[in-house]
Amino acid sequence: MTVAIRVHAADDVAVVLEQVEPGADVQLLDGGTVTAVDTVPRGHKIALRDLPSDASVHKYGAVIGRASRAVRAGEHVHSHNLATRLAGLGEYTFASAAARPFAPSATATEPFFEGYVRSDGRVGTRNEIWIVATVGCVARLAQRLAEAGRGRYAGRIDGVHALTHPFGCSQSGRDLEDTRRVLAALASHPNAGGVLVVGLGCETNQARALMASMTRPDEARVRLLAAQAEGDEFARGLALLDELVALAERDVREPCGPEHLCLGLKCGGSDGLSGITANPLVGRMADRVVGLGGRAVLTEIPEAFGAEQLLLDRAVSCEVFDAAAGVFRDFRAYLTGHGEPLHENPSPGNIAGGITTLEEKSLGAVQKGGRAPLTSVLRYGERVERAGLALLEAPGNDAVSSTALAAAGANVILFTTGRGTPLGFPVPTLKIASNSELARRKPSWIDFDAGAVLASGGAATAEAELLELVRRTASGAPARNELNGEREIALWKRGVTL
Questions:
Q1: What confidence tens digit (pLDDT) does each residue in 20-70 have?
Q2: Do the beta carbons of residue 241 and residue 269 sit within 8 Å?
Q3: Residue 98: predicted pLDDT
Q4: Considering only CA atoms, which of 164, 229, 233, 222 is closest in space to residue 202?
Q5: Between β-strands 254-256 and 113-117, what pairing exists: parallel, antiparallel or unpaired?
Q6: In this predicted structure, what is the pLDDT of residue 338?
């Protein structure tokens, strides 16, 4: 008999773990059965009761949409009979009972990982040289320098990597400021033991303005290559890399407590099991780290629409609530101001995997933030400073939001996926599969199988194993994205191109 999961006792639907054919009985893990009246693919929803047209449909104990027509018990519930209820700019309510100071729930008694302690006290999980291009015109030069450096300095540091993009010129105003702010934040990351800024010379995003925006306390670890001013820019770039490596190779790993860990929380290519397996598991990782004085950063603002209040209820103060509500309102206005509907999400891959509405996707996605108090709100390009859970302004796009997480200070990213993706980012990016079939099919992409939580007693074991994987990764064990050379950045372009 096929098994299905009803997430909350009030739910009108359950998620089937294997494809169900008409006439088959489906056993609910929390008791009871329902007979399928049509085919329900793996990870999709089956109705547990008759639902009249326009009735609110519940999953996770919350509304995920409305029945667009009458639905029979046992019927496949998806885009043909379920529609969003999202509309307008939304109203939010401050839960005054949440206004309380945040304090870690425990104190670490021993080091959690081996990291690189920088002069300002921040800790890197890698000791690399990052080559930051100010403008797309020098992107290939930066990549060539990184390619040469990987062989030239092998074994002396953890790696040499180019952070390239197509922007930095023909931009103005806020758009240019965003580009400069995020690049400066990346160049200030503790995983970079040294930074080579590569500029052209005539670009809008001037290299010296970018460097002035950086917050690195170790200015001796930064070099500038102005390509137009050099006769042989490649040779000069290698000479500057020689200087940076000579400094960075002196750094050694030291025991560090969990308060120095900053987890970036991300999901991409989600399916119907993401909100049941991988995202809640990552939420428990966030709670563990935050509970010991560490930091976790949640982003993908449009993928919280329909679940915003759940996050806002955890704000530790009215100030934090107002800042978070402002981010949500601004992003809704950003979409509607461009004539885009709020519900132009989920993606085709999400829909194929069983997610129907944005409310459903959001209610599953926000579980990556666990239950930790919301202690701070970051605008795009800002860096996390406080312990606890932070909400970061960035879109849902995998590359843009994950780049923003790295810029915010995440030194490990936990990236859940139900469909799979090889994409990686400047910091170690652990891919966590929502289902075991994906983990078996794509072992070169996937670092951890969260489908194991569905086994009896599997949740506790998976939590312990993932925490250990995080510890090993922070201490230097390579993530799959690093082994595969998958390290990209993408910038959020909101303005015009001149």
A1: 999 999 999 989 999 999 999 999 999 999 999 999 999 999 999 999 999
A2: no
A3: 61
A4: 229
A5: antiparallel
A6: 82
Spatial separation of the C-alpha atoms in residues 185 and 203, rounded to whole Å? 19
> Any residues with CB less than 8 A from the CB of 439 and at least 6 apart, and which?
433, 446, 448, 449, 451
pTM to 2 decimals? 0.95
pLDDT for 323-344, tens place per residue?
999 999 999 888 888 887 776 7
Report the alpha-carbon distance of residue 481 to residue 406 in Å, rounded.
14
Q: Is 203 helix (H, G, I), strand (E, B) or coil?
A: coil
Burial group, residue 82, by CB count within 10 angstroms (0-12, 13-18, 19+) = buried
Rounded Cα distance between 267 and 208, Å, is: 35
How many Å apart are CA 353 and CA 41, to the nearest integer? 9
pLDDT single digits (tens) 269-311? 999 999 999 999 999 999 999 999 999 999 999 999 999 999 9
Contact 28, 13 (CB under 8 A): no
For 150, the 3-state DSSP assignment is helix
- CB 151 within 8 Å of CB 372: no
- Block residue for tokens 């290939």: 140
> Would you say the C-alpha torsion 460, 466, 467, 472 has a positive or negative sign?
positive
Name the strand (E) or helix (H) holding 46: strand 45-47
Whether the CB-CB separation of 358 and 305 falls below 8 Å is answered with yes
Is residue 40 a contact partner of residue 22, using CB atoms and an 8 Å limit? no
Can you read off the two tokens belonging to residue 320?
Answer: 């934090």
Which DSSP category does 66 fall into? E
Q: In one letter, which amino acid is 360?
A: E
Task: Categorise residue 314: left if φ over 0, alpha if ψ from -120 to 50, beta otherwise.
Answer: alpha
Q: What are phi and psi of 276, to 5 degrees?
A: -105, -35
Is residue 428 within 8 A of residue 412, CB to CB? The reply is yes
Task: Tell me the H-state helices in 304-451.
Answer: 308-312, 318-337, 348-352, 358-365, 398-408, 436-441
CA distance 264 to 196: 25
Q: Please, are residues 366 and 310 in contact by the beta-carbon 8 Å criterion? A: yes
Alpha-carbon gap, residue 367 to 281, rounded angstroms: 9
182: amino acid identity, one letter: V
Is there a contact between 422 and 405 (Cβ–Cβ < 8 Å)? Answer: no
Tell me whether the omega of the peptide bond preceding residue 166 falls within 30 degrees of 0, making it cis: no
Q: What strands, in cross-sheet order, belong to the sheet with 56-59? A: 56-59, 62-67, 82-83
Q: Facing residues of 136 across strands?
A: none
From the list 119, 113, 401, 458, the residue with the least C-alpha distance to 267 is 401
For residue 393, give the amino acid letter. E
Residue 74: how many other CB atoms lie within 10 Å = 23
Q: Which of 134, 37, 118 lies closest to 76 in space, CA to CA? A: 37
d(C-alpha 407, C-alpha 416), whole Å:
19
